[in-house]
Design goal:
By secondary structure, the protein is mainly alpha-helical. 58% of the residues lie in helices and 3% in strands. It is built from 16 helices and 5 strands. It has helices at 12-20, 41-111, 113-128, 133-153, 163-177, 192-208, 228-243, 256-274, 278-283, 288-305, 309-313, 359-377, 406-419, 429-442, 447-453, 459-466; strands at residues 181-182, 188-189, 320-323, 332-335, 355-357. A 3-stranded antiparallel sheet has the order 3-4-5, covered by helices on one side. Strands 1-2 form a two-stranded antiparallel ribbon. 22% of the residues are buried. Mean pLDDT is 83; it is low at 1-22 and 32-36.
Length: 472
């Protein structure tokens, strides 16, 4: 049935007809099945109105929620923009401050050149540590000799030298004042390798002074050592020495008796200092006893291990195991060096061979090491990271982060041999050659076993060490 709507625009006849459909005459009996429940039109209109209002309210709330979310998103974007601006301002101020500091530093160095010069000196000291101290000293001596000769003979400093000046210096002065090779006239002359080493020292110094690149005769600049004249001089001198019968020689092997005599004299000398009255000990430098025992340990370790001096100088304290227990077959010394000439980047996973010294030699070496370490601790000093370290420049302690160089070892060993009356032309490598030859000729060990003990892979190199006449 159509709903009654008071606001409807339908015609009255239509509305009356709709109403008359439901009318029943008075007194007429209507069956129960014919009674129909008809909703009141006013209630239906009120329900529709309420639903419409709820729908409108829901739409308004949804619109407000969407607007709030959009406002929040805009606030987040605005905060991000403000934060980025702040970061940009901070970065700009930082860059401006750094530029101002650099500008002020430049002004201060321009106004006071001593600031720049002092920094330059410190920088050179850092760069000088690229080489060992002994190498720097040798380079200084080589340069001083050249500079003195150029000033006396040519009237100019060494940095102004040309390639012709260098070859004249080498031929007229250097070859006659250096070397131990015997010339035809009875004078000494340097080996070709010595000349090459000298030229290398001079070349490095020229580069340090700004003379870099190959020598250019047209421009009159460059490194005079990097020239055809100097290269051909070195090659020609090597050929000349070969024509005169020169052969490269090896270090003279030291005998076992002399090595043991050297170690014994060093330890006895250290014991003699220890037996002095305390008043006299305080008058002596603290490092006399530790250095004597250090040098004795180095000599004995090089003999027993047959390793290279450079590898012994780089031996860390934590790479050495000293066992004084007699229950396991006597005292032993185990070394696990991390450095070996045989271990290069192109040799894969090759690791240095360990050193195991047992029996009587192990007991003697272990006792020497313990005596050396005790002498350091008794004086409230530290041995540092390396087992064998040089002294600080002020000689107040050992250098904590530097091992003893091969040149320093060699100088100390020759000095001891000379002052004890034992020197007969030996060098530091004489210990390695003497130990290998002693085991081969006296103890009868095989060449392969000796090579493995010395950590040498090439049989030809082992053969050179075992050659008894190579030093002659």
């Amino acid at each position: 049935l159509p709903l009654f709507n008071p606001q409807s625009t339908a015609s009255p006849s239509h509305s009356a007809a709709a109403v008359n459909i439901c009318r029943v005459p008075v007194g007429t009996v209507v069956p129960a099945t014919a009674v129909v429940a008809v909703p009141v039109p006013q209630q239906l209109a009120a329900q529709q109105q309420m639903l419409l209002q709820q729908y409108i309210q829901n739409q308004q709330q949804l619109a407000m929620t969407i607007q709030q979310q959009q406002n929040q998103q805009q606030q987040v974007v605005m905060q991000q923009v403000l934060l980025q601006k702040q970061l940009n301002n901070i970065q700009f101020l930082r860059q401006q401050k750094e530029a101002q500091q650099c500008q002020e530093a430049g002004k201060s160095m321009q106004q006071d050149p001593t600031v720049y010069n002092a920094s330059l000196q410190r920088s050179r000291a850092i760069m000088a540590r690229n080489w060992q101290q002994a190498t720097n000293l040798q380079r200084d001596r080589t340069w001083q000799e050249l500079d003195r000769w150029t000033q006396e003979q040519l009237g100019k400093v060494a940095v102004q030298s040309t390639p012709n000046d260098l070859v004249v210096y080498l031929e007229s002065s250097y070859l006659h004042q250096h070397g131990r090779q015997q010339a035809e006239d009875g004078s000494n002359c340097p080996a070709p390798s010595t000349v090459s080493c000298t030229v290398a020292h001079l070349s490095t110094r020229f580069q340090e002074l700004g003379c870099r690149g190959s020598w250019d005769w047209v421009a009159g600049s460059g490194n005079p050592c990097d020239s055809m004249e100097v290269r051909t001089f070195k090659g020609g001198y090597a050929n000349q020495m070969q024509d005169l019968g020169y052969k490269p020689t090896a270090a003279k092997p030291i005998s076992e008796s002399k090595l043991q005599q050297l170690v014994q004299l060093l330890t006895e000398e250290a014991d003699a200092y220890e037996q002095l009255p305390m008043s006299q000990q305080k008058q002596q430098p603290w490092h006399i006893v530790p250095l004597l025992l250090r040098d004795a340990c180095i000599a004995q370790y090089l003999w027993d291990s047959k390793r290279r001096p450079a590898e012994a100088g780089q031996l860390h304290s934590d790479q050495l195991d000293i066992n004084l227990s007699a229950s396991s077959g006597g005292s032993t010394v185990l070394a696990h060096p991390a450095v070996s000439k045989m271990c290069h980047a192109n040799r894969g996973n090759r690791q240095p061979r360990s050193v195991a010294i047992a029996g009587a030699p192990g007991a003697k070496l272990a006792q020497l090491f313990m005596q050396y370490l005790h002498s350091i601790l008794a004086r409230n000093k530290t041995s540092g990271r390396y087992m064998f370290s040089p002294l600080l420049s002020n000689r107040q302690d050992f250098k904590a982060e530097q091992g003893l160089s091969t040149a320093a070892m060699g100088a100390r060993m020759v000095m001891h041999l000379r002052r004890l009356g034992l020197y007969e032309g030996e060098s530091l490598y004489s210990i390695k050659r003497g130990a290998m030859q002693h085991e081969f000729f006296v103890q009868g060990r095989s060449m392969q076993a000796i090579g493995e003990a010395a950590d040498i892979d090439t049989p030809a190199v082992v053969q050179m060490y075992l050659d008894p006449d190579r030093h002659l």
